[in-house]
Each structure stands twice: as structure tokens, then as C-alpha cells.
Design a protein that fits this description.
3-stranded mixed beta sheet; 0% helix; 25 strands; 5-stranded mixed beta sheet; mainly beta
């Protein structure tokens, strides 16, 4: 068998005091320092008499160091309880990266059997970036890149990060609160402009992109947002069976009446439903401010039940009530025919109802029917002002007018009678002054149409037999003059008759 020689080039040969048997793999040192030992099983021990592994190093301090040079190295230290620390050391304390180049998977399988009250961690990354300067930097505590670009078919799933968290109770005592992902992002206002975002989601490049997909089972809260001012107040969204979705706002204190849902839009708000839309204010008001409410012409707005509703088609709008129809306009209820002209209904305190038109009020019962005014029906009495030269009686202001002569008993030169643009009966009561003697000059009963023009057929009142009446001239005597105004197109004529000497 060839001989084995242990030499040291350039220096004297080392001396081996005992225990060298190479053919049987036995190299030893029986000194107290427990130096290197190679046993007959091919095991190497450093600081240990009987190594249990191929290589075993026993020390209470750093057990292994891999040097690049004296100041750049990697250190392996095992402490009590088997805690292993791998340290990379760079002379500049800057670039001593730890890189794993793996052709397969990296699996970290940790187990904790601790039963004491403490915090345990399967994996902890404590990244402190303390060398920041004013230069632009991008700092990452964890950077995950998962890429697969060579699939050729089948159903493929790629998870950038997949987390499974399960916290189960072994008994009914205590409470459990499990987080699949818990993120806290914070900053300060020292910078000129600062932002903090707990989660930034971006997706692109496929036929269907979903920014956030939530699958919350067992009827839980699909999305819950806690108030930035009060953690007990929140907003949540729940999606139930058949896609039924519920928005809930919660106010923890007071009477649960301040948890408003406000929608502030720069554009339109559109609700497109194939079913019903229900607004339930629980006894409160539903108010629509400063906007138009548009209802499709083939739908109804139903109040209370099917017997009360508003429905429109392309020509008409019907308001239907199974009992009373109550309109409370506060001041006026206006009916416009354009943006300027309208008629109005107004209800004063008490029982009076006023119907007012900016032009004329037209009541039409249709052919062969009638308009019935129940109980007493009256007119507002107008009192024109006496003037010896021109006294104006404008029946456009009212059908019933009461004229009293002024003192001096002068005759009225022109009694100007103006009629509306509609045929009708009109009454003028004329009362003498206490001194009596008042009259109307011959041919002084002048007639004017609604536009102020003189009728083409007759510019004065037409009297029975063509004879003008002479007023009763006694003190305080009253005559009543009745006029029929025929406003038929092309035949505008006023007929008059007088009843005299009411004492």
C-alpha cells in the first residue's frame, strides 16, 4: 500500500503526537482541548469527543465563519435553545446581502407549541432603513415578484402572495379575532407633501380586470369602513342571497339619526333597476332639492298603495287617488304653460281658496255638460274712482263694480267701460253723493275692448229703444246698470239696461 506523508511546504514537518490511522479513517487528539477528530465512521468533530453528524462544531460562541477577507464575511452562531443567527458583515456596513439561488422551492416550516401569553411569529422581517438622504429613493420592506410566462394551456392560477390564516377555539371560552392581512401605514406631516396609503391595488392586461374581489362567507360584513373620527361608528356593505345588497351606516351613540349617507357628485346619479325602488324614511321626510325628478313615461310613481299614483304617457299626466287628493303648496301651487305665464292656487288661513291666472282662467265642462258652483257664489266688488272728465270702470278687474259720485254733483263727461276678451254679464252700481245731481253726459257711455281699442261695431253702449237712461239724481239715490258684453269675433257690442231709484 502506498505511504501517506503529512508535510508542510517551506517549513519543518509537523509532529503528530498520537492517534493517526488513515486507512480506517481515524484521526484524533486526546488532549484536553478536544481538537479535530475524525472517527472510524467518517465523522468530523470540532470541540466535541463524539460527533453525531458528518460535521459537528461545539462552542457557546460563533461556531462557523465564512470569510471573503478579514472584514467581509458571513457568520453562523447557535445560541441557547438552538436559536441560529446568520450575520453578513460588510466593511462598509451597506452591501452584505444574503441571496438564495434556488432551482426549486424555498419552504419555511415553523412550529410553536408555546402556551404562555406572548407573541409568536412564523416569519418576521425587521427592515430598518436609516441611511435615507434627500435623494429620491424607493424603500421596500418586502418585495415579491411572481412571474409565469410560458403556459401553453389548461387552467392556470398565479398568486403573487397567498395567505391562509385560521384561528380556531378549542372551547367556548375566550374570543377569537383572525386577520388574513393586517396592514398599517403611517407617516408624518414634516415633508412638504405627504401621503399614506394602507393598500394600493392595480390590475391590468386581461379580458376581465378586478381591482378588489371579496368573498365573505356565512353572511358576514363584506366591506366595513370605520369612521376616521370615532371607531364605534362605521359604514358597511353586505351582499346576501341572490345578490341582495345592503348599505348600513351606524352611529354608536345618541339616537342613531346622524349616520347620514351623503353622495356628492360632479355628474349624474343614475339608478337603473329592473324591479322596484323603495325609499323608506321610517316616518321622516324624503326631500329632493334643486333638481328635476324624471320618471319614465311608461312607469308609475305610487304613493301608499296601488290606488294613489302619478302616471304619464307621451301626452298626458294623470294623478289618481282612491280617496282624497291633498295638495299643500305652502304659499302657491303654480301651473305653468311656459317659464313665465302661469295660473296659481293659493290657500289662505281659514277656508278660502284663491285661483289666480296671469292671463285668463278658463273653465270648460265640455259639450252638453255644465259647471256647477255649490252654495253661495260671489265676485270681488271693485270701486272705481269718480272723475268728472274721465271715470274708468275696468271690468277686467271684476264683474261687479260700485261707483259713488264725488262732491259737487258734476256730470261725468266720459264713463269709460273696458271689458275683458270674453263675453259675459257685468253690473255697475251708481250711487249719488249726499248732495245728489250726478249724471253722465250724452253719448258718454263709452265702450272699449280688452286691448283698449274701440269696438268696430259700437263705440257706446246700446240701450233699449236706442235711448240713453237718465240717472236718478236724488241724494244718495242708487241706480243699477246691467251690461251684456258680446265679445264674439267681429261683433263686439255692449248692451245695457238700468234699474233705478233704489232708496
Amino acid at each position: 500500500m502506498p505511504k501517506t506523508r503529512l508535510i508542510s511546504p517551506g517549513i519543518a514537518n509537523h509532529s503528530l503526537k498520537k492517534n493517526l490511522i488513515l486507512n480506517d479513517n481515524y484521526l484524533s487528539n486526546d488532549g484536553d482541548d478536544e481538537g479535530i477528530r475524525i472517527t472510524d465512521a467518517g465523522l468530523v468533530g470540532i470541540g466535541v469527543t463524539g460527533p453525531a453528524a458528518k460535521l459537528q462544531v461545539l462552542s457557546t460562541t460563533e461556531q462557523l465563519r465564512l470569510d471573503y477577507d478579514a472584514t467581509n464575511y458571513a457568520s453562523f452562531t447557535v445560541a441557547a435553545d438552538g436559536a441560529l443567527t446568520i450575520a453578513t458583515v460588510d466593511a462598509d456596513a451597506e452591501e452584505a446581502d444574503l441571496t438564495f439561488l434556488v432551482d426549486g422551492d424555498i419552504i419555511i416550516d415553523t412550529n410553536s407549541i408555546s402556551t404562555t401569553e406572548q407573541t409568536t411569529k412564523g416569519l418576521e422581517i425587521d427592515y430598518d432603513h436609516t441611511g435615507s438622504t434627500s435623494s429620491d429613493q424607493e424603500i421596500m420592506g418586502l418585495d415579491v415578484s411572481a412571474i409565469s410566462g410560458s403556459t401553453t394551456g389548461g387552467s392556470q392560477l398565479l398568486y403573487g402572495t397567498k395567505i391562509w390564516a385560521q384561528l380556531s377555539a378549542a372551547s367556548g371560552a375566550g374570543s377569537t379575532n383572525s386577520f388574513g392581512l393586517h396592514v398599517t401605514a403611517s407617516g408624518n406631516t414634516t415633508a412638504a407633501v405627504g401621503y399614506a396609503t394602507a393598500a394600493y391595488l392595480k390590475v391590468s392586461g386581461t379580458d376581465t380586470n378586478t381591482g378588489l374581489f371579496i368573498d365573505c362567507e356565512d353572511g358576514g360584513d363584506d366591506l366595513k369602513i370605520v369612521s376616521s373620527q370615532q371607531v364605534a361608528d362605521y359604514f358597511k356593505i353586505q351582499v346576501g342571497m341572490n345578490g341582495e345588497t345592503t348599505f348600513t351606516t351606524n352611529e354608536a351613540a345618541d339616537g342613531n339619526d346622524d349616520a347620514h349617507l351623503n353622495i356628492n357628485l360632479d355628474g349624474n346619479f343614475t339608478v337603473d333597476a329592473v324591479g322596484d325602488i323603495t325609499l323608506d324614511a321610517a316616518g321622516g321626510d324624503v326631500t329632493i332639492l334643486q333638481a328635476d325628478l324624471t320618471i319614465p313615461i311608461d312607469k308609475k310613481v305610487i304613493f301608499g298603495n296601488a290606488g294613489e299614483y302619478i302616471v304619464g304617457d307621451d301626452t298626458d299626466l294623470d294623478i289618481v287617488s282612491s280617496n282624497n287628493l291633498n295638495l299643500d303648496g305652502g304659499n302657491l301651487i303654480k301651473l305653468y304653460d311656459d317659464t313665465v305665464h302661469y295660473g296659481s292656487f293659493s290657500k289662505s288661513a281659514g277656508t278660502s281658496l284663491a285661483i289666480t291666472s296671469a292671463n285668463y282662467l278658463y273653465l270648460n265642462a265640455g259639450d252638453n255638460d255644465y259647471i256647477r258652483l255649490g252654495n253661495g257664489t260671489g265676485f270681488t266688488q271693485v270701486t272705481p274712482t269718480y272723475n268728472a272728465t274721465d271715470t274708468n270702470v275696468d271690468f277686467r278687474d271684476g264683474n261687479k263694480q260700485f261707483l259713488t259720485f264725488g262732491s259737487g254733483s258734476e256730470a261725468i263727461a266720459d264713463l269709460n267701460l273696458t271689458f275683458p276678451a270674453v263675453s259675459g254679464n257685468f253690473v255697475l252700481v251708481i250711487k249719488q253723493h249726499s248732495g245728489g245731481g250726478g249724471s253722465v253726459a250724452s253719448d258718454g257711455w263709452l265702450v272699449f275692448e280688452s286691448d283698449g281699442s274701440t269696438p268696430a261695431d259700437a263705440a257706446i253702449v246700446q240701450w233699449p229703444g236706442g235711448t240713453e237712461p237718465t240717472l236718478t239724481t236724488g241724494a244718495n239715490a242708487v241706480d243699477i246698470v246691467s251690461f251684456y258684453w258680446d265679445a264674439t269675433d267681429g261683433a263686439t257690442i255692449c248692451y245695457g239696461v238700468i234699474s233705478q231709484d233704489f232708496q
